[in-house]
Fold this protein.
Amino acid sequence: MTSEFPSSRSEDDPDVALMCAVARGSDDALAALIRRHQSPLLNYFNRSGALEDGEDMVQETFLRVYRYRDRYRPTARFQTFLYTLARHVWLDRCRKKMRKERLMGWLMREAEVQRDTSTEALDERAAEVQDALGTLSPKLKEVLILKVYQGLRYQEIAQVLNIPVGTVKSRINLAMEAMRRAVHEP
Amino acid sequence: MNHDPLHKSGASENEHGDVAAYVLDELNATERAAFEAHVASCASCRAALAKRQETHALLHTIESATVSHDLAPEILDRIRAGRSESWWRTASLAALLLIGTVLGLWWWPNAGSKSVPVVSGVDLLDDDFVASTRCEDALQWLCRAQEPDGSWDPEKWGGDRRYRVALTTLSAMALLDHPSPSAAMENALSKAVLYLVDQQGQREIDSTGFSDRKLAALAIEKAGYPLGQDRWTSGEQGGWAYGESRHDDQPLEEVRYALLQSPASVGIERGGQIYTTAMACLTR
């Protein structure tokens, strides 16, 4: 975990004031942040592959927001901070699941480990896209999710993943092309 | 402008990137205007743009989920009750502290000229401690000290064999808490958990009693190994079992509370002041 979360363009972000209030001990501000971001976060986890325990991970993410409240710096957009923590929650979950698979003696590819199969609620086309998303490598999938579904800017994704902006751009391109091929040429 | 931006690399990637950046609204007004002007006169980029727009539209066919209820009260309750993950984090850090103290201060003098990182100072029980070099060194040392069967052998360090399960459990807990464990740590953790799993149902195990078995069950569960149910019981043959209805089984929260007392119950209360301070951290 990095000790600080630098970012840019925080002046227009209403969440920054709320997060600063959380750092000062305001439960009301934390509740407001939870209500604003709980559904987008749920979607982040769902699209990453967690369809069964997404709400648990949303809760865990906000517990970490509270735990690391002193480390937030208002130079960052709140989403950069939030998705940095959410990504760690997701990676922890993947690590635990992979450990479980190893302990059980099952050999599974990483992409399969990260993909749940309960897509009944999705219509056929959406299920096709969700499946295609699941075939992406973790690195490509995470940039695509953060950009397309969570709406982060390239610069913010670079900060969340601690990679250069150029790498974000190239991964986005590769991911979109891989998605196009997966859907059109399964 | 590259004429086949989707399938070429090198210098063409910037042009290709502009197509995706345009679709994903990453361009500023000037860049956007320049791109649109170019696309108007470039058939291949128009084709590339159409493909990207189609893919973008496809990605949005996945419906957005909505959280079924307001999570705020539940999360705030968990924070107020102090039942967040920090409970386990603090417990396992304290376990590492205790292991380092027990092995380093008392047992290590019997082991010749080897060196061991001694963890001390409960003021370090936070994330900086987890990331600290001393913590990293301690965990790496733990990995090297592991027995081939996955356990940590107290006899090797001058302790009683009955602490083998407890010592292995505490080592597993310390490894479990590492935020980004190395492959060696993951391997050591897996071996430790499999060792603990092997102990369940054994007629004779190196354990001092029910408390350290419960602690072991908790570590196994935390590692992701499926226990099946939320209740642990003492085993029929001296090990431990799960999910059976017996008079002495306990719900999860009681087991977790028992964990707070487990270091004492397995005989490593010899830490004196350090142990007392660690327990204070655990229970506050």
Notes: Chain B touches chain A through 51 residues (CB under 8 Å).
